[in-house]
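re: ur question from earlier - yeah i can do the single chain one, its not a big deal. heres the input i used so u can compare w yours
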Amino acid sequence: MRDNFMELLKPDQTYTFSKFFDLKLPADELAMEFGYSLSRTKLNLPQYSDSLNRLENLRSRIEEILPYVDLSNETSRREILIAPVVTEVVHYTKARLRIEYPIVVTNQLQSLLDYLLSSQNELLVIEAKRQDLDYGMTQLVSEIIALDQWKRTPEQPILIGAVTTGKFWEFARLNRVSKHFEQGLESYRVPEDLEPLMRILVYALKN
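and the output i got, formated as tokens:
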């Protein structure tokens, strides 16, 4: 497996984040190639404890429109399920939101970040994918590695990212000192798990 992987990732070739998804590389193998390690574990990410006074309104809007929308393609899931969640996070955190934000760190770490949220001292990256969250996690890991090495990333010890199909969200966390990723075993559904999901996203930018 390792030998095949090394043949795929050649130092003289250019790669984009989405290319790692298309290559179907396991997340731990990709992390290892860049000098990081990865384990799968329950993250129990901290949640924002204060009031989210528009949460029920967001839930109602999503539930109201779901029976009338075809969510079979990525664009519809982004507009109906992901964008409302992300913009609500901006409301609570006043974070700056960049959509399809270009970043170039090296020839092997470059392309567009679907959603990059930045508050005064914290960054949060969100990757929107098709139904395959496993290889979506691989792409997310490549994006977090890029942010770790990006000169404009704040001096925060932990980087957090999420990969989502719109209906399901999963998280990964990087300890920048140990270069170790933790891939969360937990999965959050929208709209069923909207409250814990929102509290995790808000805390990541307000802590």
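Strands lie at 37-41, 96-106, 109-118, 123-128, 158-164, 168-175, 180-184, 188-189. not sure if urs matches, ping me
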